[in-house]
Design a protein that fits this description.
The chain is of the alpha/beta class. The protein has two domains: 162 residues, Rossmann fold, CATH 3.40.50.300; 70 residues, Alpha-Beta Plaits. The chain contains eleven helices and 14 strands. It is elongated and about 80 Å long. The C terminus is likely disordered. This is Multidrug ABC transporter ATP-binding protein. Keywords: ATP-binding, Nucleotide-binding, Transport. Pfam families: ABC_tran. InterPro entries: AAA+_ATPase (IPR003593), ABC_transporter-like_ATP-bd (IPR003439), ABC_transporter-like_CS (IPR017871), ABC_transporter_ATP-binding (IPR050763), P-loop_NTPase (IPR027417).
């Protein structure tokens, strides 16, 4: 199946000399959820803005549904819905009217049954006759999502869609997103809530300083860059780490919680993790154990590690498709 979005060697340099994007290539498949992660100023919004036709690239090409965003822009944009970071709504317009107006901008005929379905899914139907200035920040953000869905796009961009939204409404929004993906809509999101990306995304892209460091399936990324941690609760506290431990054990071992807990970081993919050796060494020294548990690195741990290490020189290469 051909990609719904294909980006080839995309770059953007502003007149000030700032390079917002640097040779970005990426393919996005129909019906997937791709999360773009990166610090502020990394280039996430610039990338989305170029695909959506809001910013003109310096070089490279973007095709949406086979349509070039510059030479066949009308057909390309009709496939796209965008929920921007900024809340920009006409304050005196009623909710239903502003969603109708957006649908009309795409040349679509009236379809109030579809708009009712969208508004109900976002818990906005009861507010359909309210003026947008009367809504809370969270409600206004849901109106932006309704506007983006008004013309039934094939691709939906969510640029920090849950910023300023409470936990309950955030969960409701992600239920809507799951339903959209199930219907075949491709979702590209940026978020600072890494637990959302970890829960929702099929693939994770990490962007920093305008370069796409990598794009990998979430499970593969967690397996490759994530580490596991063994937590050992002790019967009695230790004043210091045991002396004379072999290097394979000592390298990943720390003493925490006032000497009551040993923490051992290890690579689960390694042929020898060192766990057996650690437990044998503790037993040989007569150190009693109260409990043993393992934890997996979170996406936040992986993300921070990638940024700190510059992804250890990882480039996009064949992992983009």
């Amino acid at each position: 199946m051909p990609p719904i979005i294909r980006i080839d060697h995309l770059s953007k340099q502003y007149g000030s000399g700032t390079r917002a994007l640097d040779d970005v290539s990426l393919e996005i498949q129909p019906g997937e959820i791709l999360a773009l992660l990166g610090p502020n100023g990394a280039g996430k919004t610039t990338l989305i803005s170029i695909i959506c036709g809001l910013v003109v690239p310096t070089g490279g090409t973007v095709r949406v549904g086979g349509h070039d965003i510059r030479t066949d822009w009308r057909a390309a944009r009709k496939l796209i819905g965008l929920v921007p970071q900024e809340i920009a709504l006409e304050p005196f317009e009623k909710v239903l009217d502003t969603v109708r107006f957006t649908r009309g901008l795409y040349g679509e005929p009236p379809d109030d049954a579809w708009l009712e379905q969208v508004l109900r899914s976002l818990a906005l139907w009861d507010k359909r006759d309210a003026r947008t200035r009367e809504l809370s920040g969270g409600m206004k953000r849901r109106v932006l999502i309704a506007k983006a869905l008004s013309h039934r796009p094939k691709v939906l961009f969510l640029d920090e869609p849950t910023a300023g939204v409470d936990v309950h409404l955030r969960r409701e929004m992600w239920q809507v997103v799951r339903g959209l993906r199930a219907s075949g809509v491709t979702i590209i999101l940026t978020t600072h809530y890494l637990e959302e990306a970890e829960d929702m995304a099929d693939r994770i892209g990490v962007i920093d300083k305008g370069r796409l460091l990598l794009v990998r399936p979430k499970a593969e990324l967690m397996g490759e860059f994530g580490r596991k941690r063994l937590v050992v609760e002790l019967d009695a506290p230790l004043a210091a780490l045991p002396e004379g431990l072999p290097e394979e054990v000592a390298a990943g071992l720390t003493l925490e919680a006032g000497g009551h807990r040993l923490v051992f970081d290890y690579d689960a993919r390694a042929e020898r993790t060192g766990i057996g050796r650690l437990l044998a060494e503790l037993n040989a020294r007569g150190i009693g154990l109260r409990d043993v548990a393992t934890t997996q690195s979170s996406l936040e741990d992986v993300f921070m590690s990638l940024l700190e290490q510059g992804a250890e020189g990882a480039q996009l290469g064949g992992d983009a498709a």
